[in-house]
Amino acid sequence: MTSSMRIWRRMIMPDLVRVHRYQSLPEQGPKVLFFSGGSALNKISRVFKEYTHHSVHLVTPFDSGGSSARLRAEFDIPAVGDLRSRLMALADETVMGQPEVYDLFTHRLPQQAEALALREQLQLLVLGEHPLIECIPNPMKALIQTHLAVTQARINADFDLRGASIGNLIMAGGYLNNQQQLDPIVFLFSRLVKALGEVKTTLDASLHLGVELDNGEIVLGQHRITGKETDELSSPIKRMWLNKGLRNIVPTNCHIADDRKDAIESADLICYPPGSFYSSLLANLLPEGVGRSICQNPNPKVYLPNLGTDPEQHGLSLMERVKRLVSTVMADTGATGLYSALDYLLLDDSYNYGELDCQLLNGLNVVVIRTPLITEKQHKYDERLVARALLSFV
């Protein structure tokens, strides 16, 4: 019989002795869990794997823009772009890893090429005669060819291959070849690139995001929310939900799988990292069971907010974001939870995040920790300083 309990210790920030210990033996490093999507965390992830090989990355499968959108429209699959991107960030890039597979997975077909030329490149990849795949040894090469061949056989004649990610095409073929399940193919490709950490979607389901704005307007689709592929939203976001499809308002939800529940509840540290506030961070907290699992975990939860301008944060101060983050987590618990939704607000010691409401933070039992996180003359987080700060909590 086992039992869990909370313990307290004196914390030093940054705790360089503790950090050095992790860096010396990353195979035994802590289990730090990130709720994220997009590419905002990739640089931090590439550094983080130097300190622990046990980080867990729950990414959103709800993207509806870029080359992922074409695959989603073609096959009605979850978005695979963020999965591939994070797997590549965590890939073992040493000679002990698989640099040839890394190169293949990160390659994109030319943006300006003619459709026929792109089809010919895909055919060479399927045949194993393209320079990027020729150097990959069997049976790995044959496995990749098989999945690419499935994608090639299933796409329509007018499918737009311009700028398509080879890694996304491979993963889509794997999904279609595995009873339309994403988890087995993610596990397989994690092994192929020797990922030094674990990457999963929060849900293995093909859903989309819907938001209602303060002005009453309804917007469906992640790509229409971020302000990157379309105009920025005309009004702040009031609420968000998971939606079936992009045509009609059909709110839905699914419960997270047991392995996601276990990963959240057993993490040594939970981090809400920088990234698009709604479509990357809060979207990950929407599925049923996420909030309950967070509040079953007694270990520290840390929010590292964005720097600069995020179109999704329009009209939201840092304090309002803290409140929405906590309320999104607590909405799944029925307003009760064994442990907290958020413990620490991690801030750079010189950056101006706006006014802090100490009374609000005290009411939420959130402690502010300021430490150097931005290198001089930069307006972005320094990956190594962030990694050291986060690792000082565990």
Automatic annotation (TrEMBL):
Pfam families per UniProt: CofD (PF01933)
GO MF entries: LPPG:FO 2-phospho-L-lactate transferase activity
InterPro entries reported in the protein's UniProt record: CofD (IPR002882), CofD-like_dom_sf (IPR038136), CofD-rel_GAK (IPR027591)
UniProt xrefs under SUPFAM superfamilies: CofD-like
PANTHER family referenced in this protein's UniProt entry, alphabetically: MATERNAL EFFECT EMBRYO ARREST 18
Listed name of the protein: CofD-related protein, GAK system
Species for this entry: Marinomonas polaris DSM 16579
